[in-house]
């Protein structure tokens, strides 16, 4: 019996969501009854330092795309039992949990993206369409979901049906793409999963929670790029200045300030002043999600861990979420980066 099958009536939709986290060679796939969870991360090995998130492996940031079961026209997952998992071989791990088990493996993210766009389409049209009033952009009459124009049937043209199947542990992930009567079948090698503990966000000890239009964060991050910055500092305060994004680099420094206006910041919860610094290039890596999303939830805990959760509107009013988490720079790291830039 096949372990997992799913059908999406839009291969492009799956492609664009996964493209948001395409900053690593491999992606860890977790199959559950609720949907598919794709996780990528960047880590750095630190020796001789004790840090709260890991003793030896310093996780810099991670990106998670969750494609829930409702995003597929059909979705079936029948996890193997523990005994079956032990007798099977190959590069897959089946974990027991309250929901009846999850299946975890790794695949090449680059190969997956190439497969999903095998019939060919460009992305430049998506970004221009998301700003075009004719496609319901942020300046158009359908301002609620400007970025969702990337998934509009007027842009998509032919429907590209995507069928995913996974026979059993150790078997390849099979992807079948159909468009205009043409069918292409690809089998992707699966690899042994790595231990990936999430960068912990202490939800019960949040130092800030801000919800705003994603396009404004996108514009602010790009505005700061003019100084070729190495670091991004996020400062939030219950009094003015309420939210300030600042950067510094070899070409100078810059800052973008947001006022606490309900038209600007939909939610603003900052009990006391908080300031943390992150590597600018890592935050900039989330730009694709910033550009596509309609809203972003910015959360930070008292340890400085930053979460950027983007809400991306799809067809028929459905939504999907992309979550990025960032570890703040330690003081000595910031100093080292400044020295490298000066060299």
Q: What can be said about this structure in brief?
A:
With 343 residues, the chain is an alpha+beta fold.
Provide structural commentary.
With 343 residues, this protein is of the alpha+beta class. 20% of the residues lie in helices and 38% in strands. The protein has nine helices and 19 strands. It has helices spanning 11-19, 82-87, 109-116, 124-131, 153-156, 214-224, 280-284, 287-292, 331-342, and strands spanning 4-8, 26-31, 35-45, 57-68, 74-77, 93-95, 102-108, 161-166, 173-179, 182-188, 206-213, 231-236, 243-249, 252-258, 265-269, 274-279, 295-301, 306-313, 319-326. The strands form three sheets. A ten-stranded antiparallel sheet has the order 6-7-2-3-4-19-18-17-11-15. The N and C termini lie far apart (60 Å). The model is unreliable at 45-57, 124-146 and 152-157 (pLDDT under 50).
């Amino acid at each position: 019996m096949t372990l997992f099958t799913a059908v999406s009536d839009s291969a492009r939709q799956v492609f664009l969501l996964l493209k948001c986290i395409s900053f690593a060679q491999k992606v860890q796939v977790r199959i559950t009854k609720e949907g598919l969870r794709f996780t990528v991360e960047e880590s750095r090995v630190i020796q001789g330092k004790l840090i709260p998130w890991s003793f030896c492996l310093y996780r810099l940031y991670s990106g998670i795309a969750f494609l829930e079961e409702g995003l597929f026209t059909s979705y079936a997952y029948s996890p193997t039992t523990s005994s079956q998992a032990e007798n099977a071989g190959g590069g897959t791990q089946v974990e027991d949990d309250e929901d009846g088990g999850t299946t975890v493996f790794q695949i090449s993210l680059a190969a997956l993206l190439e497969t999903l766009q095998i019939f060919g389409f460009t992305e430049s049209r998506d970004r221009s369409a998301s700003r075009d009033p004719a496609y319901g952009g942020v300046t158009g009459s359908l301002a609620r979901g400007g970025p969702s124009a990337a998934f509009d049937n007027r842009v998509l043209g032919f429907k590209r049906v995507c069928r995913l199947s996974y026979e059993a542990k150790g078997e390849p992930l099979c992807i079948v793409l159909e468009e205009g009567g043409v069918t292409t079948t690809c089998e992707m090698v699966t690899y042994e999963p790595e231990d990936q503990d999430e960068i912990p966000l202490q939800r019960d000890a949040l130092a800030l929670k801000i919800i705003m239009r994603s396009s404004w964060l996108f514009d602010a991050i790009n505005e700061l790029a003019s100084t070729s910055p190495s670091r991004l500092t996020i400062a939030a305060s219950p009094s003015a200045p309420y939210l300030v994004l600042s950067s510094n680099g070899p070409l100078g420094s810059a800052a973008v300030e947001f006022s606490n206006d309900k038209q600007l910041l939909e939610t603003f919860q900052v009990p006391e002043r908080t300031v943390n610094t992150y590597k600018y290039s890592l935050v900039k890596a989330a730009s694709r999600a910033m550009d596509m999303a309609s809203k972003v939830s910015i959360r930070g805990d008292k340890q400085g861990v930053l979460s950027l959760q983007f809400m991306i509107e799809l067809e028929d009013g459905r939504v999907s979420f992309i979550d990025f988490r960032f570890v703040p720079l330690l003081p000595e790291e910031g100093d080292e980066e400044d020295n490298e830039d000066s060299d």
